[in-house]
Amino acid sequence: MSVPNLRAVWPVLAWCGALLYPAVLFVTMANRQAGFVTLEVVASAVLTALVLSMLPRWPLPILLVLVVAWTGAVLEYANGTGFALEMAVVGVAIGYIASVRRRRVSIGAAAAALVVQGMTVYAFLQNARDQFLMTAVLVVMASWTAGNSVRMRRRHAEALRAREQEQAFTEERLRIARELHDMVAHSVGIIAIQAGVGGRVIETQPAEARKALAAIEATSRDTLASLRRMLTGLRREGTLGPAPGLDDLARLAAATRDAGVRVDVRRTGARRELPSDVDLCAYRVVQEALTNVVRHAGVEECRVTIGYREDGLEIEVEDEGSGGVVGSGFGIVGMRERVALVRGEFAAGPRPGGRGFRVTARIPA
Predict the structure, then answer these.
(1) In the chain, count of helices (H) and strands (E)?
(2) Among the four 113, 162, 216, 339, which has the fewest Cβ within 10 Å?
(3) 246-365 adopts what CATH topology?
(4) Residue pLDDT, tens place only, 116-145
(5) Burial tier of 341 (Cβ tally within 10 Å: 0-12, 13-18, 19+)
(6) Distances from the Cα of 158 to the Cαs of 96, 155, 164, 328, in angstroms?
(7) Domain limits, the chain
């Protein structure tokens, strides 16, 4: 018989065994007075294992089969041993049902099983009825509590996984938002300034206008290439390719100079290779800070200082312009979030004396 056919026939065979189970168990217990027959005991054990293995697929019907089978068995084996076996097997079923079904369903199933067991105790056991009834209550409660605890732990674990997944989605969305903001805002700011310059001098200084248009073209191409790289990486569910870092500061400074602000880049300490996340974070902080200088400071020059320390990296971008108030845009927020993700410290605000603006970041590396 092929595997697909066996899978189709298996439920029928299993239920045939389950329906035979009460009769086989009853015969086994009925013949005990002449001594248990090995074949009957083995058959009862095998069918018990079979019926219990059917619990995951049909928990409530199988509980009914177990209760009926063992109630009949106790009719012929009305002593403590028979009743203890009944409590053990039925307790396993109650515990499993409590672990996979809603609390209302599992409590109803446990209560029904307990009522049947109680009636069996008072109907067929002559000695120590109260003790057996108390034992039945304790076994049912313990089985239900254990199963319900498993269910609650599983639900808690599922809730944690869902929360972690949601948090991962949120972090990824914020990461993409920061990348887009840092990438596009800087470029668009330079394009806007160059377009304004070109519009003012297009008639009086055609050469300067052409220079502004060339800067707009170069900036647009760089931004388009970066966006294409990001979108390609997202579509392929892979990395986004080589990310910019502090080695690209010269190109960033040149683009900022084309926008009308000269950038004095200073490096202190022994230069060394940085972790990729730190390198990208440092570059984006400098990029966003320079974007703010171009947009808000109203100055012709600014200073960028990169300090390599034994315990990390220090970044400082400052100007002497008029942008001395922290705004409510996404730039400062994005820089602070980036630095926090690499366990660094970030500060932004007016310089001492009130003239100019300063952005600082300290990143362990």
Answers:
(1) 10, 5
(2) 162
(3) Heat Shock Protein 90 (3.30.565)
(4) 888 877 776 666 677 778 888 898 999 999
(5) middle
(6) 19, 5, 10, 38
(7) 3-163, 246-365
